[in-house]
Amino acid sequence: MEKILFELKPFLDTLVSSFSAVLNLEFTIINSKPISRISGTGVYESALNQKEWKNTYTDYVITTKERLIVIEPEKTYPKIIDKVSESYYSIILEPIKINDDVLGVLVIASFDEVQQKFLISNQDKLVKYLKNISELITSKILESKLRKEIFESNENLKEIINYVNEGILLFNKGTIVTNSIAESILCSNKVNIYNNLIVKIKQKIDESLEHRSDMESKIIEEYNDIYFMLFLELKFLGENKVLVLINTLEKIQTQNFSNSQQNNTFETIITQDEKMLDLKNKINTFSNNDSNVLIQGETGTGKELFARAVHDSSYRNKKPFVAINCASIPESLLESELFGYHSGAFTGASKTGKVGKIVLANNGTLFLDEIGDMPLYLQAKLLRVLNDSYVEPIGSEKPIKVNIRIISATNKNLTAMVENNEFRSDLFFRLNVIPMYIPPLRERKKDIQLLASYFIKKYNTKFNKNVRGIDIDTLEILDNYSWPGNVRELENTIEYAMNFKEKGNIFPEDLPKRISEDKTLRKNTFKAKNTYTYNNELTLKTNMNLYEKFVIQEQLDKYPKPLSNKNLMTLCNNFNISPATLYRKLK
Ligand SMILES: Nc1ncnc2c1ncn2[C@@H]1O[C@H](COP(=O)(O)OP(=O)(O)OP(=O)(O)O)[C@@H](O)[C@H]1O
Q: Which residue range(s) make up the domain with 577?
């Protein structure tokens, strides 16, 4: 502390010379212990090496710790001998103090009559001026002291955190200290994204400081069209201190990152069916609760649309909605798609590794479509993620912490699959916290016309057409058709028809043959009270299979959906077949 003013010499030199130039008076700054001149202008500059300080004004101020104003030196303090010059006219001395310690003295002096006149007539102003400069120097000293302390404590911290076997950044009162592992992670890709990452990490630190809480977050940084993702765990340690743990910097492909939809899908669920409206209304009551949701329903009924609506209505809606279809990805790839892998985890693995969908969905929603097609060994792995909230990429020993909500969907009867040991019961219970069942379109006929009109509007805009609506005969066909592909099939049908129309109504002949020709079949079917009509174009065996399917479906339709276990067993007993055979025959 004693020599701290010397450390500020460049700053004090600038201060002294600039004030002297403006005010046309002489300035000097003297250190108190040891007493020695640090900086000075005019005669003071040539007296920088002054050795004798006894009986000087400076000595007097250091002793009394008070400001001194001397207008007529000889008369006021005859005993004080100042060695700098014989021609002192007037002088003002201001102590530089921290608490009660005098660190130095700030001096303004006049050495001729003109300067003295100026000093006397501006005495009050100059005193104020000196006081301000003294305070400025004091704050500068305190700041530099603080910086030094922080530097020292940061050096100590750095030594400590270097022992930790994890990437650590420690934010301590304005500075970030990193350990060597963090540095190697942040520079690992030898690309110039280090600075950008640090800026973004600092933003996350600010968030943690503002909320005074721990946080988990991820940073995506783009460089040369390649995306890098860094996962952070922030621990709020108290006032101005945050500890940041970082994991490996993952390289990801653009298309892998979130296929989330910005619009609120809630509004795009078109329905006037009571059951559907009830389902839609329920979304808002549970969407924020993080409970897993299992959506059951036939293909094309809108399961994904509902899943997105749950995500969009939840607080997770600013985070990714990541969808994966377990049936459309070969079993061998599903594991790496879901869990990701570490660089070089297996033969053929990309050198940079791959971020799995589970990790991509962190803090957001993971939509597992066709969950019934997930192989048993992956079901076990997924269950571990749900139980521990950690995911272990293939070939990595470092688990990554994740916070995801899972919405799964299936058109299979998972209850029956559980009973046949084709689906793990423990996973089923974890996924099926909130069950949702979407009825097929043929069970909500009211929606057919509404949806058809909605799709006409959509494709009028898309194709720039002016189709008015649906002819009454067409509507009858649409009403009577069984819609095995549900809403998706209806939308495709309208899209098909609109390709060939400019304006007016959609007539039966505008529909795909498969549907317009089904009219007679359906009508006859209804008249004949649900009988199967033999199809000459198909083989006997196919007709037999279809008839079997028809009979089973007819019985199945009599029970409420989703099918309860009890009803399933009754049905199977009646047919004298196992649930597995029943589902095989329905395929
Ligand atoms: N109620 C609805 N209102 C508007 N569009 C709908 C509705 N239901 C479904 N759709 C549309 O139908 C198509 C199929 O919906 P979606 O993909 O959500 O069905 P799904 O049940 O998940 O199908 P799959 O089981 O084959 O994956 C989508 O284009 C969707 O936007």
A: 532-587
Q: Is the CB of 26 under 6 A from ligand 1?
A: no
Q: Is 396 inside a domain boundary?
A: yes
Does ligand 1 come within 6 angstroms of the Cβ of 302?
yes
Distances (CA, A) of 59 to 7, 23, 52, 188: 22, 25, 10, 60
pLDDT of residue 254: 40
The model's pLDDT over 152-180, given as tens digits with 9 standing for 90+, comes to: 777 777 767 766 667 888 887 778 888 87
Between the CA of 547 and the centroid of ligand 1 the distance, in Å, is 28
Ligand 1 site, residue 303, Cβ cutoff 6 A: yes
Question: Does residue 504 contact residue 467 with C-beta atoms inside 8 Å?
Answer: yes
Residues 41 and 136 grouped into a single domain? yes
Find the 454 Cα to ligand 1 centroid distance in Å. 13
305 lines ligand 1 (CB under 6 A): yes
The token pair that represents 483 in the structure block:
């819609």
In a domain, 526, yes or no: no
What is residue 226's predicted lDDT score, i.e. its pLDDT?
Answer: 65
When divided into structural domains, the chain yields a total of 5
**Alpha carbon of 269 to ligand 1 centroid (Å):** 9
Sequential DSSP letters for 115-130: HHHHHHHTHHHHHHHH
Report phi then psi at 320, rounded to 5: -65, 145
pLDDT at site 526: 38
Same domain, 468 and 426: no
* Check: complex ipTM more than 0.95: yes
DSSP conformation letters of 431-473: H-SEEEEE--GGG-THHHHHHHHHHHHHHHHHHT-EEEEE-HH
For the ranges 262-271, 338-347, 537-546, the lowest mean pLDDT is seen at: 338-347
Range 402-416 average pLDDT: 93
Structure-block tokens of residue 514 = 């498969």
Q: How far is the CA of 61 from the centre of ligand 1 (A)?
A: 87
| Per-residue model confidence as pLDDT tens digits over 121-146 | 999 999 998 999 999 888 888 887 77
Same domain, 365 and 447: no
